[in-house]
Write a structure and sequence with these properties.
This protein is an all-alpha fold. Helices cover 86% and strands 0% of the residues. It is built from 8 helices and no strands. The longest helix is centred in the last third of the chain and has 67 residues. The radius of gyration is 28 Å and the shape is rod-shaped.
């Protein structure tokens, strides 16, 4: 029944529902490409990054550490930068600053991901809706043709099931992508929290050394 038909002919057979699913597919694919590209740009190797930050703080080169963080477009760099800007303050103030920055960066990392998750949940139902409409239309046609129109029903049902298949075709990749995004965001959060804790300890320790040295004098 579907042999020799092009993709556009199959889409037309599915009706308006197929166009809606095609729009969802294009939107989902666009977001997936954008997010993966963004995550790759924002990924920083934590070990060498923190080694450089640690050395700069221990040597009292806070300005150099600030410049280094500003040169990187990464969530961990933004979090460490927020801590460096609070150097000399109490540990609680430094921790609060990094906690706020983690929330900001997490929100940026999660941008658009909910759309993909929604498409993954809704696409199946859009496909089923198209299938129901197709079956209703098939029985309506049979009522006009008569009992001899069973072939009309079979053909209509087969065409309607295209919508279900299309809905699954759109939903499954979207759900997989959404779960992938969640894991990536969780990974970024762990990295940010680790760098936040380590930097706070370094700055607090450095600040205490300054106070002790000043009191000794």
């Amino acid at each position: 029944m579907f042999e020799g038909k092009t993709i556009w002919e199959l889409i037309n057979m599915g009706g308006v529902t197929m166009y809606a699913l095609m729009a969802c597919s294009v939107l989902s694919l666009g977001i997936v490409i954008e997010r993966i590209s963004s995550y790759r740009r924002k990924t920083v190797d934590r070990v060498p990054f923190m080694d450089k930050i640690t050395k700069s703080i221990e040597n009292g080169e806070i300005t150099e550490a600030v410049k280094f963080c500003e040169s990187l477009n990464a969530p961990v760099a933004a979090v460490v930068l927020s801590a460096l800007k609070k150097f000399g303050h109490e540990e609680k103030m430094i921790s609060n600053a990094t906690a706020r920055e983690i929330m900001i960066e997490t929100n940026k990392l999660e941008r658009y991901t909910n759309i993909v998750g929604t498409i993954g949940n809704v696409a199946v139902y859009i496909g089923l809706f198209g299938t129901v409409l197709g079956i209703v239309r098939s029985f309506h046609n049979m009522a006009h043709v008569g009992s001899g129109g069973i072939s009309v029903v079979i053909g209509g049902v087969a065409e309607a099931l295209l919508c279900t298949a299309a809905g699954l075709f759109v939903a499954v990749p979207a759900v997989v992508a959404y779960n992938y995004f969640l894991r990536r965001v969780d990974g970024f959060i762990i990295e940010m929290e680790y760098c936040s804790s380590a930097t706070t300890d370094l700055l607090t320790s450095r600040g205490n050394e300054h106070e002790t040295s000043f009191q000794t004098r």
